[in-house]
Design goal:
about 525 residues, mainly alpha, disordered N terminus
Length: about 525
């Protein structure tokens, strides 16, 4: 049986046989896989051109399928230039290569008509839907599930519970296997990166930076982790001043070479019908990946800007559009500063000098740091989508036993915040079922483990119940009460405002956990004194 080799797995192999039967491990991953398959039987984004309006055909499902079509048939120089008005490719290069592989596979497994250039647009036949769902499931199991296993399994039942909770997150299941995306690839690569970075030998940081570069080149949202990761790795370089230059150059060479390999074909080759220079091609792709011209406000996301754009504040009308990106940048820097500072200090505490227990604490703090940094980006940055909350959720979910009540509460809030999008996709049934299953798992876990310390104690003890009632109350109100004609977007706006308030509260909690953590060097001195 596969035995994870991560630094957090310190028990002997005999402990695996004695404490965790193989059948239980198979049951956990089998349950997670079945849950994904069942969600896949629901609707996907833009199915039958249904998304509450008739502005354009399809959604993320058709976009991903179309990218398979163009990458399979066209020369690589055309990929980022072909018919940009119809779901033009706007993800980083690794997604493009992934689309080519899936398109090639679709040609032979699902039929050539499923990726026929131009004429396959809008195809939604059952066989091809099954293939598309299969690709999401396959890469989820191969990358995300194995990353969670590698980073979290400690050969005991507690770690198995943490893995189960991480793999059964309703928000991740509903977006990737319902709405349809491949977020778990970027999330899995990021988890692998984090798990390597905190290991004692510096070469592991190099491995981690390689995996993180892959994540960045698969989905641009992974940049939400980048400041925290940068300062942590900078700290690792500073941990040994005599080796700072060599370590920094080693990491820089890894990053530059990885990006160069992935980007070089797109820099070298351009569209056949338009004369372009290498500089033109780079700028064009960057503009495709980061469409800043769309503006600060993207729908009714549960972040600060969308919440402040409601009446009577209506911030969009009060701030010059030219100043909005600068304001978003300033607020984002302010909100990610605590995590960046903490990660720099954390990295400077060289785990190789301190021991395996401190490596585990570095893992915990790195997850809190990346969760804080990504949540700061979600709340304050430019061009935020609802789905971006998965960036904060993924590392937080791995911290189950640090504060089970908070992690489970945050998981529910993340899924609940996606309701307006899921409702448009007609995923009400999968949403209800995955939430009930997740709540059942929470109940079962609480019955099988001792009471754990939590931030929800004392004056905050009623926060989960009050917020759960508020979220449930909005669901009931939307089902029973029709909004007034002058406020047709009443419920999406309420979701945005309440969601923003809950995420701001979660941000403060995560920052408090991050900044209150004891310095590992001070802790070591206390033990030896």
């Amino acid at each position: 049986m596969f035995k994870p080799s991560g630094i957090r797995n310190t028990a002997g192999s005999s402990g695996l046989q004695r404490n965790i039967p193989n059948s239980l491990i198979v049951a956990v991953f089998g349950f997670a896989a079945i849950l994904r398959i069942l969600v896949g039987f629901g609707h996907h984004s833009g199915e039958n051109n249904y998304h509450g309006s008739n502005k354009s055909y399809g959604g993320d499902y058709e976009a991903q399928r179309h990218w398979m079509e163009i990458t399979y048939h066209l020369p690589i120089g055309e990929w980022y230039w072909y018919d940009l008005e119809y779901w033009g490719l706007d993800y980083p290069p690794l997604t493009a290569y992934h689309s080519y592989f899936c398109g090639w596979l679709s040609h032979y497994l699902a039929g050539a008509d499923t990726v026929a250039l131009d004429v396959s647009r809008g195809i939604e036949e059952p066989k091809h839907k099954a293939y598309m769902r299969f690709t999401v499931l396959l890469f989820d199991l191969l990358i995300f599930c194995t990353a969670v296993w590698y980073s979290s399994f400690r050969q005991d039942r507690r770690s198995l519970w943490a893995i189960l909770i991480s793999l059964c997150q309703p928000a991740i299941l509903l977006i990737d296997h319902g709405h349809f995306q491949y977020n778990t690839i970027a999330l899995g690569l990021s988890v692998y990166a984090f798990s390597f970075m905190v290991q004692g030998r510096f070469i592991s940081c190099v491995y981690g930076s390689f995996f993180f570069c892959l994540a960045l080149n698969f989905k641009q949202m992974t940049l939400y982790y980048a400041p925290a990761v940068f300062f942590y790795l900078l700290g690792r370089c500073l941990a040994k001043p005599s080796k700072f230059v060599s370590r920094f150059l080693f990491l820089g060479l890894t990053v530059i070479s990885t990006f160069w390999i992935l980007w070089r074909p797109f820099i070298q080759y351009g569209p056949s019908q338009t004369a372009t220079t290498s500089h033109d091609r780079i700028i064009h792709i960057i503009r495709r990946i980061f469409p800043f011209e769309r503006g600060l406000f993207e729908g009714k996301v549960a972040n600060i800007w969308c919440a402040l754009n409601t009446r009577p504040v209506s911030i969009r009308e009060r701030i010059d559009p030219a100043a909005q990106p600068l304001l978003a940048l300033a607020l984002t820097i302010a909100m990610i500063a605590p995590s960046c500072y903490s990660m720099l200090r954390l990295g400077m505490q060289d785990p190789k000098k301190i021991g395996i227990e401190i490596e585990k604490k570095q893992w915990i703090q790195l997850l809190w740091g990346t969760a804080s940094c990504s949540l700061g980006f979600f709340l304050a940055s430019f061009q935020v989508h609802e789905k971006s909350i998965l960036m904060a959720l993924a590392p937080c979910a791995l911290l189950l036993w640090q504060d089970p009540a908070f992690v489970e509460w945050f998981s529910i809030v993340c899924a609940w915040s996606l309701w307006p999008l899921l409702r448009v996709d007609r995923l009400q049934v999968p949403y209800s079922c995955t939430m009930i299953i997740f709540l059942s798992l929470i109940r079962l876990r609480s019955q099988q483990s001792q009471l754990q310390p939590t931030v929800f104690s004392g004056s905050l003890s009623h926060v989960p119940k009050v917020t759960h009632l508020a979220m449930l109350g909005l669901h009931i109100a939307e089902a029973l009460l029709k909004p007034p004609s002058r406020l047709p977007d009443l419920y999406p706006v309420l979701w945005s405002v309440l969601g923003c308030a809950l995420f701001c509260f979660a941000y403060l909690i995560i920052c408090s956990k991050l900044l209150k953590s004891p310095d590992v060097h001070d802790e070591r001195k206390a033990k030896t004194s």
